[in-house]
Design goal:
This protein has 15 helices and two strands. With about 325 residues, it is an all-alpha fold. A two-stranded antiparallel sheet has the order 1-2.
């Protein structure tokens, strides 16, 4: 009992420190920009100019907020899928979601006007189609466990949507549509405004609340099917619930900002290194670590270089840089 109390107190202290770090990073990011000079502007400078205040409220603040939401959503989805499938290499696009959403966005960009609303609608719809096709194919396979069947189905569905996206690139207009599609696929938060951000906040809040309240159930879903069923866990229904929540937030993120890689895979590993395998701790840890890391990556993309570079490039570079030391460190805490 004393050991459990000490472990709980240690986890609470780490969570508090992560919350403090997130608050500091968030404030500094809102103050950071390239106008009038690259770097962090003082509050006095921003408050003294109406233009500075407008830039902060209408450009920087929604961008930092969507970066926070991206990090929270992708890292949480990655942790859920890694736990359910007992596979440390799983990420949110694992079930054909990322590829399906990319294909949907490609359709909107190539054949329609490419407005934000059209891209979001098509990306979310085809992202959900990716999950539906994966589950449908998994139910038709006649061998292996349900988890293995979903893994194989997800690989097949991802390949199909990737092929479709390649065809779209081939037929896209070389001077207008293809560059727009290519830049969108690289990922960016630069197109997000209050108009696009506010409508999706209730969805994120509702889904993340469900995940947070039921996070301890993930510990049971990490068990093998026979053990979970023996303690009266409805394995299939609960897995579908968590998978659906993961897909919803992932598809919406992709519809807003394009493909953002590595965050959903590396953050769960960091959370488990710091807090152990208990999802009662690793879910809130992933929320905070993912938010911090994504905000920092977006700051690097928009401030560090003379010209803004795609966010997906930065997250891939940072994620790959963290992957080796994280995976090479000592084993996960129990």
């Amino acid at each position: 009992m004393d050991t459990l109390r000490k472990r709980g107190a240690s986890a609470a202290l780490k969570i508090a420190l992560l919350l403090l770090l997130l608050a500091v990073v968030f404030i500094l990011s809102v103050l950071a920009g390239r106008f009038p000079l690259p770097g962090i502007q003082s509050p006095q400078t921003i408050l003294a100019s109406e233009m500075h205040r407008s830039i902060l409220i209408h450009l920087r603040l929604p961008r930092v907020l969507i970066s926070l939401i991206l990090g929270i959503s992708l890292s949480t989805a990655g942790l859920i899928l890694q736990t359910i499938f007992n596979n440390p290499m799983v990420e949110p696009g694992f079930l054909g979601v990322s590829q399906g959403a990319s294909f949907g966005a490609g359709l909107a960009i190539v054949f329609l006007n490419g407005r934000n609303e059209e891209i979001q609608l098509f990306a979310v719809f085809f992202g959900m189609c990716g999950l539906g096709l994966s589950i449908l194919l998994a139910n038709r396979f006649k061998f292996g466990s349900w988890v293995m069947r979903v893994v194989l189905a997800g690989i097949a569905v991802s390949a199909l949507f990737s092929a479709g996206l390649g065809i779209l690139k081939y037929f896209a207009d070389r001077y207008e549509r293809l560059p727009l599609l290519s830049f969108w696929l690289l990922g960016s938060t630069g197109r997000v405004t209050w108009t696009t951000l506010l409508p999706i906040l209730p969805v994120f809040g509702f889904v993340l609340t469900i995940i947070f309240l039921l996070r301890w159930r993930l510990n049971l879903l990490s068990l093998d099917d026979e053990t979970a069923l023996s303690i009266s866990v409805n394995v299939k229904a609960e897995r579908l619930l968590f998978m659906f929540c993961s897909v919803v937030i992932t598809a919406i993120c992709i519809s807003l900002c394009g493909i953002i890689g590595w965050i959903g895979m590396i953050v769960p590993h960091i959370a488990r290194k710091l807090f152990g395998a208990n999802t009662a701790y690793t879910i809130p840890a992933s929320l905070l670590i993912g938010g911090i890391l994504m905000i920092v990556c977006d700051d690097l993309a928009r401030v560090m270089f003379p010209v803004e570079i795609p966010l997906g490039v930065v997250t891939s570079f940072v994620g790959a840089g963290l992957f080796l030391p994280v995976m090479s460190s000592r084993r996960v805490k129990k």
